[in-house]
Fold each of these.
Amino acid sequence: MAMDHAAAEGDHLAAERAAARFDVEAMKVAWAGSRHAVDVADRMARLVASDPVFRKDNRTMLSRKDLFKDTLRKAAHAWKRIVELRLTEEEASLLRQYVDQPGYVDLHWGMFVPAIKGQGTEEQQKKWLPLAYKFQIIGCYAQTELGHGSNVQGLETTATFDPKTDGFVIHSPTLTSSKWWPGGLGKASTHAVVYARLITEGKDYGIHGFIVQLRSLEDHSPLPGVTLGDIGGKFGSGAYNSMDNGVLRFDHVRIPRDQMLMRLSQVTREGKYVNSDVPKQLLYGTMVYVRQSIVADASKALSRAVCIAVRYSAIRKQFGSQDGGPETQVLNYRTQQSRLFPLLASAYAFRFVGDWLNWLYTDVTQKLEAKDYSTLQEAHACTAGLKAVTTSATADAIEECRKLCGGHGYLNSSGLPELFAVYVPACTYEGDNVVLLLQVARILMKTVSQLTSGKQPVGTMAYMGKVQHLMQSKCAVKTAEDWLNPAFIQEAFEARALRMAVNCAQNIGQAANQEEGSIYIIQHHIPFSLLNCTCSVLFGINCTSDDCAPCRFL
């Protein structure tokens, strides 16, 4: 990182880039996945950056009303440009991403359309998807209620079949049954996929999806029996306040029977509940897809924050002046590097594990279609665990990047306060992170309990089958260079993970009840901030080397 005085007085960023010891273009390709992806991303980024309609420099200063109007304007303009330029689906998706302003279109494309694709019959898809693709209807995803979020089975909205009219009656029986939080619901959406308890012939068949029209296509007014609106401002300036998260209540609203999403099950004209031949486990494919997208978004948000902090650290100079010379770049201080560089590495790690989850989605979908459910447990554990870990780590990292930029990071113009405010909801939506981690812990505990029976773990938990070796092994690292060998690093993490799982299982076995066991898991989760001494803490194993790179560094 050392630079001579001449370079220090010039363009620091240019000098740092010139000093890179890797091929920058090759790294771009590695990040994007292909040269084609790099080129498309570059074209779409330039298209957005050069269009004054998509400006964002004044966003944090707008009132909520003006911010929402700005969001509508950008969404309409983006759709106009997509049509005019005849952009491909890949190009259109990137253009919407670079517009970088949460809005109703996110839920329309990200939840409403996939729900119809995944849960609708072929006939239903032919009817509804063309309308959605042409924006003749605008959809949202109405699942979460005021009284229930993570506990989907506790939802209270009802959909009761009426054989006299061959339709369902959608109703909100309690205040807590009000749909609460759906993005796009507050102002924009004309339709919703509503999740409700299906009741027919006096029996409750659990939660099912229904396509329900909410507003008139003539004047956008709420339909009879539908009460809805915006739930108000959210955390931060700009940020998620551009999204019209809404509240929705139904007063005996009637819909035709064929607006129940019927790919997995249906109700006949006579009111009989019938399962289809399509396995319900296919819904897991949609879950994997959504969580894969969240992990990919984590890498994007983290990379933005790190980019800001790295560039600031290269430009900012503090202390170190000798004989009237220039001060030292903040980036050259080891304390700054030790806080910043692990976040940079994490951005790449999250990017590549997102690719792996994309492969897992394809693999799981293919196996489900072949009625092979062998990987469902692992798919759930991986997606739940990675969603929780990457979103929590990213939220914390954005805040750390703000601190790394000193007082300037607190300014809205740094981009970091708004980035933090717009990102932190990811720790809650699509599964509260603590709840998800407890689900992963239960799967790990189940796997540990099966080790004594001789049942061999598979997939990403296959390493637990080496229990005898890993419980006794010691770190084989002899020199600092040994840490460049991935095999050493992998075994260290395998040994640490297995020993923590076994220890956790032993302690939970002594708990009086499940609640006490859950509390133990939460209280004994070792946070990253505690990984600051030797290999015995970092990896849960005993290092045999006096020249251990992590121990020397920490």
Amino acid sequence: MKIKHRKPQNFPHLPVTKQRRMMNQPGKWVALMAAIWIQAFTGTNFDFPSYSSNLKAALGMSQVELNYLAVASDVGKAFGWCSGIALLYFPSWVVMLMAASMGFLGYGLQWLLLQGIVSLPYSMVYLLCLLAGCSICWFNTICYVSCIQKFPANRALALSLIVSFNGVSAALYTLMTNAVDPNDASLYLLLNALVPLIISVVAFFPILHQPPAQPSSADATRNDSLTFICLYITAVITGLYLITFNSTPSSKYGAQILLAGAFALLLVPLCLPGIWSTHKWLFRIASTGLSSVLHFRFNLVNHELQQELINVESERSGTKVITPCDYKEKESISRKMMGKENLTVLEEEHSAKMLVRRLDFWLYFVAYFCGGTIGLVYSNNLGQISQSLGYSSLTSSLVTLYSSCSFFGRLISAGPDFMREKVHFARTGWLALALVPNPIAFILLAASGSEIALQIGTGLIGLSSGFMFSASVSITSELFGPNSSGVNHNILITNIPLGSFLYGVLAAVSYDSTAGSSNQTAATLGDVVVCIGRKCYLQTFIWWACISIVGLASCFLLFRRTKPAYDRHYESNPSKTQPF
């Protein structure tokens, strides 16, 4: 009888909340698609080898001076932490338009220089390269922070997906250039200036109208994982399309058809989440409405009886309802754990001051410095490497090969998240395995100067570097806290300008000294001396192989130190090991 007098008004409102939550689901997917498009067209640093020789001839530079320009683009990434600070004080769309403006100015003036419209000193070109590199890092930060906020349960899957599309930028820009004028390398600079600006304007509204993040149930997380499977399949098809058709020679008209197909594939991910979310939403409304009409009274009584049973059981056992620990208790526990030498838990927030005091961070820094960064420097020198080996005509295809393999390396980095139900392995361990191809590739390049060796080596380095670039975002979030990743990851990638300078200077000095030591290895292209032969980069490849071995060793030590934290995380969070 008591049950009849209790007010049941609040109980039926639960389905309405679920309905509203389902209505907000498409919003986060649209934001994810906006991040994919931004990433796909803002990896403008990967096409530097395609126009570097033209830039070198226009300014009459030596190889060392050209390397400084490549370094300048990477030095811009050293200021990437400013984007994390800017996001704390400005809306994301403001930061995005600031990034687009920097890229438009940096690349646009360089294009005017190659067209002979303006005359700029070397120092000004250096600053323009720095500004362009800064814009890339700002775009990346916006996308990373957006995915971390919108997909807290599937953070790694979202990050790996969007970062992978950054690897196809060079292939897309090559298609666009071939579709307009295959013989004009300066078009890369014009497209680098205009396309990111246009994409930013298109993505303006999805970024501006992002719904607030809402906690997801276990069922919603599994549904999101299934959607990610569809998106990853689409991404693989896109990568195979670009690497297959971009490597085959085609006419201007053929390139236009291939470009239209690439854009169509990039539009497919925009439809999949919408169809999936709409289907689930309609199904939820229908099932909720039917159950509320037919079984409302049964559910109400069952709910009340469960509550009474819980209260009786609590009184008998004398136990209390478990509540989350107080914030101060969490903070004290965190401080105790941070005070220890080894990292004991994952996803604990680290300030910048705490970050630089950790040995794990510096092992991570060295692994990135000697692993991912050295692959990026290799791609910057790919134009001169192919020229010295007598494969100048293959430069565009090699850039596309590196870009496509980098794309697949970034996709492969999501493999641990799909296999975590069966294989509980630390992400730092996967990273160590991904760095193994680097020394193999450089040893192969040093041993042989054949076209096949160059292609295999470029592909291996692209795979390894792509995995590193993608997995590092998730690893930074796991080791040093998701909320601080916007700043902490930009602190990590300050190794890129440092490595770009040191490795680039090493390669450039060896290149120029080899070209000047013997007339048989030198050729003249205008006022510029060009090195020809295997000796031009032989010493560089040997040095890079040794450095990559150091990075592999550092990553292995990081894995050994962080493995207990990952094991403890899997044991205490068994639900996170079952995404499907």
Amino acid sequence: MVELRHSSSSLGSRVASSPMKRDEDTSPLIHDHFSQHVEDHPRHSSRDRERSFWWQTYSFSPFSKDDPRFSQRGSRISLFLLLFVAIAGLISIFSILHRLNSPYLCKKDGIVLHCPRVKEKPSLWENPFSATTSWKPCAERREGGISDLPPENETSGYLFIHAEGGLNQQRIAICNAVAVAKIMNATLILPVLKQDQIWKDQTKFEDIFDVDHFINYLKDDVRIVRDIPEWFTDKSELFTSIRRTVKNIPKYAPAQFYIDNVLPRIKEKKIMSLKPFVDRLGYDNVPPEINRLRCRVNYHALKFLPEIEQMSDLLVSRMRNRTGSPNPYMALHLRFEKGMVGLSFCDFVGTREEKARMAEYRQKEWPRRYKNGTHLWQLALQKRKEGRCPLEPGEVAVILRAMGYPKETQIYVASGQVYGGQNRMAPLRNMFPNLGFTLPVPLLIYGSIKAVYLFRPVTKEELASKEELAAFRKHVTSLAALDFLVCLKSDVFVMTHGGNFAKLIIGARRYVGHRQKSIKPDKGLMSKSFGDPYMGWANFVEDVVITHQTRTGLPEETFPNYDLWENPLTPCMCKA
């Protein structure tokens, strides 16, 4: 203690007698009235002087300001602080520049999608402009490139597939076939569009797609031939023989599976068929260049025949000019056919007789899933809660009005025969009168002819004459192609349930630019809102708007939330 006091007192005296202290005491900058005030002020008590003494002792360095060691250490600290501030400033500048230059991209946190804020006012018909200028398609072929493909007789062998299902399922199968042929360095035989039990259509590849464009556009990627080679005489063997068929391919198989299990058989047999081939190639377990090739096939190589494209342009033009002046239009993919309602095993509003008939239909079509029917009520509740039930026409109408679409909105309907007919469509028709036409139909009632007014939605059949559509009725897939293109070119596309049709359209609209709105309703959240008897209209509107402001086809990474067909951004698009 003695030593501490001694050193402290010596330090205090040294500080008090320093030149700086003396200069401060005799400084001419101190005004006379301030000095007078100090002299008139009573002297500090001993306790104040002691407090001041200890503050000086612990707040000052053990070195005097005149000491060179004090000056050197202070300069080092100042230099360090200056360097720290400079580095922090550079990091901030780079961070700001990166944020300004980074493309518009939404991030998903669980089920919530977070998107960058924009200054633009929300639009009913377009996504924010900043979202559309950030990304561009990058899957097209490179012009002037040199092909490294070997001649046809030097590839691993020939690959043959049946593209099953409807038009959109067949389209995905064709894209996957090109990708698998590339993986194994095989020659692809032009895929056969197999007749489906539901569609019952005998359409050939060349009846829908431009074969010459398909082969020429992919000539630097995959060797493609129109038919089975002539040296293979028994062509029926590819359709029937087990020896020529690979059947053990799992769903969403990785690229390595084909190299390990299919390629050796192709090299041995020289020609092999893959069956079944629906969803037999994964997305995030194949190389990026293979996914990019699938996009090249889907968005560039697979072109519909010119007559299909021309007819679709005519339908779009008539849709935009229905009122005599150009107007935007909405395309609604309404999936509420009897088959879809039955297959969903969901419960819908209806009479007892209607529900009894649906139960009989389900028991007949899907006996294994139906069983005795006792578990179906609980299953229906669970599926609706999870958002796995098709939206009814009335539910779609309420959601669209809550989003702000006026009753004058022009709506094109892509749908089969709606289950429930006129009564089921009534709420949608009442909220959106421009959805279709009301036509008088003469009926014989109690011995007299009376006119009964029936509602018919705006479809391709209403926009074109029977003569104009006659050439397309030969193939069911041709009519499906017209629906596909009219929906693709719409200002707003609305899906009501999953499926390859909606998935491919949303993906294509994203690929050509995210400006076109593609609305994907949150059916799980909407089921809670519809089931809440105490929710008022204002609260419902707020829920709908907030929930769906990011569910409009904005830029978002593909994996793991989407597959390639619904969102091609990650492998097939690049920064604009």
